[in-house]
Design brief:
Elements (H helix, E strand, L loop, with lengths): L4 E5 L6 H10 L2 E15 L2 E15 L5
Antiparallel strand pairs: 1-3, 2-3
Length: 64
């Protein structure tokens, strides 16, 4: 049995559309989204590298 909700992260070399398609193939639909910046420390200073995007996937039940 699959979990009711799972967080899916958009991989570094993946588009948002590809992530949503991957979710759909696993039986989930996006019901939420969150973003947070990923920082890197260089010489004591922090600079953003990229944005981490995650989708909350809710399992689509096959039952009526």
């Amino acid at each position: 049995m699959k979990k009711k909700t799972v967080w899916f992260e958009v991989e570094e070399n993946e588009t948002i559309e590809e992530c949503l398609e991957r979710m759909k193939n696993e039986g989930y639909i996006a019901t939420g989204r969150r973003e947070q910046p990923l920082f890197e420390e260089t010489n004591g200073e922090y600079s953003p590298i990229r944005q981490i995007i995650q989708f909350k996937g809710t399992y689509i039940s096959e039952e009526p």
